[in-house]
Fold these 2 entries.
Entry 1:
Amino acid sequence: MKLNIALLAGDGIGPEVIDQAVKVSNAVAKKFNHEIIWTSGITGAAAIDEVGEPYPDATHEICMAADAVLFGAIGHPRYDNDPKATVRPEQGLLKMRQKLGLFANVRPTFTFPSLIDNSPLKRERIEGTDLIILRELTGGIYFGERGRKDDGNTAFDTCTYTRAEVQRLAKLGFEMAMTRSKRLCCVDKANVLETSRLWRETVQDMEKDFPEVTVSYEFVDAVAMRLVQWPNSYDVLITENLFGDILTDEASVISGSMGLMPSASIGIHTSLFEPIHGSYPQAAGKDIANPLATVLSAAMMFEDAFGLKEEAELIRSVVNKSLAEGIVTEDLSGKNKAYKTSEVGDWLANNI
Amino acid sequence: MKLNIALLAGDGIGPEVIDQAVKVSNAVAKKFNHEIIWTSGITGAAAIDEVGEPYPDATHEICMAADAVLFGAIGHPRYDNDPKATVRPEQGLLKMRQKLGLFANVRPTFTFPSLIDNSPLKRERIEGTDLIILRELTGGIYFGERGRKDDGNTAFDTCTYTRAEVQRLAKLGFEMAMTRSKRLCCVDKANVLETSRLWRETVQDMEKDFPEVTVSYEFVDAVAMRLVQWPNSYDVLITENLFGDILTDEASVISGSMGLMPSASIGIHTSLFEPIHGSYPQAAGKDIANPLATVLSAAMMFEDAFGLKEEAELIRSVVNKSLAEGIVTEDLSGKNKAYKTSEVGDWLANNI
Ligand SMILES: CC(C)[C@H](C(=O)O)[C@@H](O)C(=O)O
Ligand SMILES: CC(C)[C@H](C(=O)O)[C@@H](O)C(=O)O
């Protein structure tokens, strides 16, 4: 099979971890007789530096022509504390999401038995956690009208949702629940927000189409609590963009395996796969970042974008082997030897 | 001293826990020779049932005439899953906040050494946690324009902030930081939202007036993570209304002492004191709810609304004594005898 993959390394540790995912993917391709055509594009602060724009048209063309996008991370501290900066790396991320129509961000949170003691939560709280948050990614307050009035002394942001946007996301959620334990939780703030009431009403209307799925409705503040208290009580959660931003990040730290969590963004034009850990600028260029989340994102890509399940499973099993044998970067090595990012990548590729 | 206090018991377990706070407050007043004049008002579902409106004008008059408001909880499950209900108990809460100008919600999260093992977090993560989240309470998306368009198929909510609103809240935050460890964290989403950029810019401008305070700026998604990972790294956090809703609830469960956490809402016309635990309808009428958060809210009221620090300290010390001696409700009793809500209240009042 011929796999056309756009490769966006991005900022910070992005290039380093992407390199390892490429090594592993190439090894898998070789083994299964696939041909991968990688086409690289620039994004983020790196792209601002080169062409003054964080998601250049040339990069967009590359993504549109690809069957899938493998993505590193975007973001640079240079821009973080400057509220007046007019071009920000994150704008690239948002533009990319919008132009590629990446409407659903799929964020699994699960545990690795060998890493469970890294969790800030007590073992009995986190054990057995296996949940997915489906975050709407191209609507809501991220993309509504915003601005200033009154000589800059008043600011506003608008959150908007259409019924069709909610249906599109919720349908994925129902379908995903059907392949799992058939429980779906709709997270909103329907006691305050009109958009949340539209969400709740729309999901309620869809219940009849999925009679086997048990749906619960919870307020975002209550979910923020229960994710810490009893994360293993959740299965599939669906929510709007901003709530999803907060809750997926909260969920990511409870497993103790943040450096290992992959994600997918399902789109109209293509799908994108990326580690959730971000650009982690403090570690950039040091060859110490954990590449496993990116490698597992590549596994998700093989399975979800190309239907290559066996290939994906092979990657996952090699990752598990590296964990079992302690071939890990310093974030996971404890008192044992810490391997470099590139060493872990080489080991994985060799073991494919 | 004459203390004019409005008493709003509200819904669910509200009336039961409020009763205990009244007993304890009366005992304190007797001991210190104060006269408390309690004036009760109806709110929430209880008020909807009686007069069709969750924050009736009569109740508002009572609050306006009082020096402080002691509040139970609002909310009833009857309204939760009905997106089309036109009168909701929570509207009463929002109307009350707005009409009383309760612009700052003060939410401490601290630990009780004897309860630390109730925390879902590991001991080393939670130990030493003592933080305060200052949540803006009368602005933002809670009070912006909202509605439907397009035959009800599009919904919108608007988030608005003015510089003056941010300054008012941030000033409290800086002042509070000055009385503590002089660290202030401004929580926003300035990489996306214009209102957040106004927040960040305004707080940055205020830094020069409080040169001793070290200010950090963090994104709400990052804070949602760090609150679970290293809550003891925070001191005072300031944030806008919706972020505050989510983060204060998340923070409330990490201590393992949610049933004990008091809160204050500082207002233009008066101040309001309430437990953070909500109306907890499942327990209503059973005389099993933990009254300590409400009793500790009364302590906050003595100190913050009336400057009666000694009285507040006495209440706190009696609460600590009840914990040490195991005079606690079933949520805290473990394998030991569980006391009724009213028994705990009686014990506290007798020990004043
Ligand atoms: C960088 C930022 C704009 C982005 C978001 O808020 O969506 C990030 O936090 C994420 O979750 O991918
Ligand atoms: C009931 C609801 C409107 C309210 C809020 O969101 O402010 C509650 O969650 C709170 O935090 O007091």
Entry 2:
Amino acid sequence: MVKNGLPMASGKKAGISPTRAEDFPQWFQSVVRDAEVAELDHVRGCMVIRPWGYGIWELMQRAMDDAIKASGADNAYFPLFIPLNYIAEEAAHVEGFAKEMAVVTHHRLEKDADSGDLVPAAELSEPLVVRPTSETIIGRSFAKWINSYRDLPLLINQWANVVRWELRPRVLLRTTEFLWQEGHTAHATEDEARAKTLEMLEVYREFAESVLAVPVIPGEKPESERFPGAVSSLSIEAMMQDGKALQAGTSHYLGQNFSRAMGMQYTAEDGGQHHAHTTSWGTSTRLMGALVMTHADDNGLRLPPRVAPHQVVIVPITRDEPAAVLEAADGIAAEVGAASVLDAPLRVSVDRRERKPAEKRWEWIRKGAPLVLELGERDIEGGVVTVTRRNDLDLAREQVPRSELASKLPQLVESMQAEYLAAAAERLGSRTSRDVSNVDEFREFFSGDDPDSGGFVRAPWCADPATDAVMGELGVSVRCIPFDQALADGAECVISGAPAKVEALFAKAY
Amino acid sequence: MVKNGLPMASGKKAGISPTRAEDFPQWFQSVVRDAEVAELDHVRGCMVIRPWGYGIWELMQRAMDDAIKASGADNAYFPLFIPLNYIAEEAAHVEGFAKEMAVVTHHRLEKDADSGDLVPAAELSEPLVVRPTSETIIGRSFAKWINSYRDLPLLINQWANVVRWELRPRVLLRTTEFLWQEGHTAHATEDEARAKTLEMLEVYREFAESVLAVPVIPGEKPESERFPGAVSSLSIEAMMQDGKALQAGTSHYLGQNFSRAMGMQYTAEDGGQHHAHTTSWGTSTRLMGALVMTHADDNGLRLPPRVAPHQVVIVPITRDEPAAVLEAADGIAAEVGAASVLDAPLRVSVDRRERKPAEKRWEWIRKGAPLVLELGERDIEGGVVTVTRRNDLDLAREQVPRSELASKLPQLVESMQAEYLAAAAERLGSRTSRDVSNVDEFREFFSGDDPDSGGFVRAPWCADPATDAVMGELGVSVRCIPFDQALADGAECVISGAPAKVEALFAKAY
């Protein structure tokens, strides 16, 4: 059953309120809350990432960290605080971030003598910015560490929290504090630095598709969307279930802008002094937002098995003989957990909590565990186990012979990863139009509020800033200039009708 | 050769200046810098953890994380910023931390119209504290998540950066920003919470000894040294090579102090409402300081193999036929890397950098890699490899037949872990005195500036605050009341001569 382009669980009260069709943004918030992934709490715009959400993040982190290390980068850690004079040095950079910086001005609290309230005391001689990104501080360390061409390339990655003050925060998508990795590299030549920028974008594309099951379109950002201080910014763009784009990773070639500002020079083989060419690249907890908006449904989260903290959850149905049922559940967990699926041991968990079995089953469905097994005394007698597959829209209970579990469950888990990717790729393909050929069709495509209206448009673009007016009016932007250009000779800009320079990817975006 | 109790590399210019005997504190700073572990840079008191240091930290983190998860705790993440009113609520807690808190007061930078300088703008209605620890914020989340006794125990751990403003910073030991894990748990009963406090201290003891090869003395902190807001604080105390103590991990029973302040209540089986009993426990990058001060020598760092990012480094000596030598080096790396040592595949690295072989060998010795292999054309012809063992004081080069590497290297690595622990345990034992019986002997023991004077004293103590004067004068404190008490009937306090209440561990401390 399909409604408004969004598949619905048939004949069943939806678990998440509102549904996607009713109110997509609110549905997203509800899924993130009800699946216990994360919540905005305590401080405006700041997030608590709950154990289930953090478990997802740990699996993402492990896979991404492996890929980054395989690219040759080493992890390191740099200060949270950045002196004001550091950040002021690269003009475009400070311009881009000044409006969203948290500033530390004091280093002590004291009781106010009159009111008795705690107030900031001991003012700093120079305010410190809480890092919004670390080019300026890591670049200065690079300048110290790099002397000769032999020290290049220098490839560093950092896992850290960063702060960008958000006036309109949204959980996972736009939060004042978020977790991320930021890679920073320095190279002897422009060619080598540009190649690294491209290489890391490819690492991100591969990660998004094979780990998160989120297909993406890689390309270059238009000038107006470049990272502050970059010469060229690349991105991967994913499509959410409402047809909007989400930037899922960026990789920047910074030229010599930062190396000149920081005196990052090296002595070449011929003795000459040169400024290094640098790059930076990052992905963040925002990717968990992409995961939710790509795969979740009206019953809650659906997790691709590679990022599911538990791939199989066993719910024991215990009344009279709890010990026997628990023993049988543990036996299944041990047997099935010995299998290897998607390059790792299958992750199985027995839910022993003191709660009603039905409540547990729905909790794991809401949390997106790929397979939920129920096991009671009658099942044991009958030699069967009841299996719910999270990718079945009806969430039907299927009886599987106990003897077949060890061969069948790994297959089901493995195929679910591929199925989620295929479904998302099908959506990306079917909702990307290449047939929008003039501004009227462009306006029509991006008007309408139904979650199933709109999507991506790939069309010729003149790259003239004058086209911003129409885009701004519709809330649309150029997401990227896709690498796989298909621009016909003499093609005209879809907005202005003027000769087109590139084929662009247009969309509304998060 | 032993000088001042510190073994010296014989007949060889020491790599680190000054040596331990010359100036222990300065030696420590030099080792941390020269081994490229970390450096204070950019912001007063803040640390850059360099790739080699971060590699050590990652291995520590992985082992600790496994142990914490095995204890039943899940990882999660909570906001970096804490509202002022949160931190003000637990009186002893705010008292303890007020003097060292970094305070965020603004969320934007603007150009000053007159000077053109960037200045903080957009003042926050309530200042935010950068977390010095997270009891107040995690406790409030617990209060929301806990309803019934069925929700208990709640066991959470967080890996995060924290900030405590340091007026006299020292790299790794006392830094304004540091990395740590902080565990927070809530329980239905005092007994259960106290048992968890003890259980996690035991996790720390086991980690320090088996992973870091740092033997420790577990015990309870005296009242004056308790965590602000705690009912009871436990710690493990390690002895550095200069005889001083370093607190290597703490675990606190917080009673109902925080749960009352935050309204963390649960409904019991009988329907009654109760406040939970909470604990918190933490270890930090400070442990890397303990690692250095326990194992390093006058040639630099010495890493117990479990935390050595490379356990075996192969330095190819290439002149005429680099390809053949590199091929042979890769062959050794592949063969030796297939072995499993200390529960993990042996970590082998071939150093292909364009640098002189002697320079590389000394770099890896300074960085503490357990085994350094050198391999040139003549070695290949002779069927041998030159091995330097980092635990050999003379750093002698030993010729090992190529055919024996696969069996011999894993043994050497494995035994080095045990040897480092045994050496540290021997020091802890021999420099802990149980024979100091009155205040004159106490003064004598703790006077004198030689690195080999002093150590730990275990002696009867009356626990009277009046004993603080003598201790303060000597720069000594009670590190803990060891769990394995050996207090004779009628024993007299080593300082006051009054009847003793406990056997205490006295030491100077970091």
